[in-house]
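Render Cytosine-specific methyltransferase in 3D.
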Amino acid sequence: MDTYELIDLALTRYSPKEVAFALGVDPKTVRRWHLRETEPKPYIADAIRQRLLPLGEAPTGEAAFRFIDLFAGIGGIRLPFEKLGGRCVFTSEWDAYARKTYAANFHDGPEHSFAGDITAVHEDDVPDHDVLLAGFPCQPFSIAGVSKKNALGRPHGFADKTQGTLFFDVARIIAAKRPKAFLLENVKNLVSHDKGRTFSTIVDVLQNELGYRVHTKVINGKHFVPQHRERIMIVGFREDVPFDWADLNLPALEDGPKLDSILHREDGTEPPEWHCLEGAKGRVSDKYVLSDKLWAYLQNYAAKHREKGNGFGFGLVTKKDVARTLSARYYKDGSEILVSRGARKNPRRLTPRECARLMGYGDTFRIPVSDTRAYKQFGNSVVVPVIASVARLMVPLLDQIGTEAAPARKVA
Ligand SMILES: C[S@@+](CC[C@H](N)C(=O)[O-])C[C@H]1O[C@@H](n2cnc3c(N)ncnc32)[C@H](O)[C@@H]1O
């Protein structure tokens, strides 16, 4: 690819302003390059590769298996399946900023398509695949309506039970494409929601209406990262395979890592990341330290709730601790995970890079969005090594499932 083509490619992912910012030039210059009016300096090609495009090249050749990535976010579920030899052939994510992070980290060839709103995609337009991945957003309230409908004696079937929920979109794609396997991920609360009825409906649809062998398990991210984060994994196979959660290789909870493994070292041994770290030692920038006003507010709020006997309040941690669950609202006040800087100093928030590490993302993962967006994206994401442990159980079993899919079941 020559430099002009690299510029064009970068412009399919970023605006001229963003490309200009990353390359340290004026947006007008980028437009002129794009129109072939002026010639970029030779170093621009490398700068684009390093700063704006995913590392490596788009995959080529035969893949071990093909998968699709629904409600993809920033691709946390995709990462381990790709590492195990899978080729992503379809992604759906409607948030423009999540797409930006995704595009900065994954290279896709011509056989891959990227859709926005999955509810607007017809299942026949989804490419054939072996594995369906979906960290679907939790909207169980609509599913909860099922029991009422049943009580009223209304007809119910998979479509009727779940229509209007995003789980329906997952189910209708499974029904039409009949992948060999799927992995669905959600918050632990899904299991107990509406006295367990929501979860039973989901499992019932997957098992009895779509005919998959379903295995479920709540896994705590704390096995792998210094964060308490419990999530339900719903694994399904189209045929009988010897899948057993007992084979899951989870490090002992008590041996799990502590926060010192993810906090910036601040000793000059880390490459400085543009705005998070400062000076030769890579000290965490003061902008992450809580203001006096916010810190006073959080302490008063916690004290009030303590008086009432509630456990609400901030979570102050040191490097020897394990953090609470990082949420998508962390950008607001950071209260669930505040890093202590000693008794006399205001604590600080985690930086986006520390949040990435807390979710098990490697340091090569690119964060091309603002801090606010990055906090939301990591707070919504998965603990990557948890997914990796499940993927390692699933992938070897794919070969035991016939390639000829059973006839598609049509949504009623
Ligand atoms: C819980 S997050 C999944 C995060 C993902 N597993 C990751 O590792 O980053 C759910 C994602 O679904 C996306 N989403 C919600 N409704 C959608 C829709 N109708 N079509 C496509 N994406 C949707 C949200 O923007 C969000 O990024």
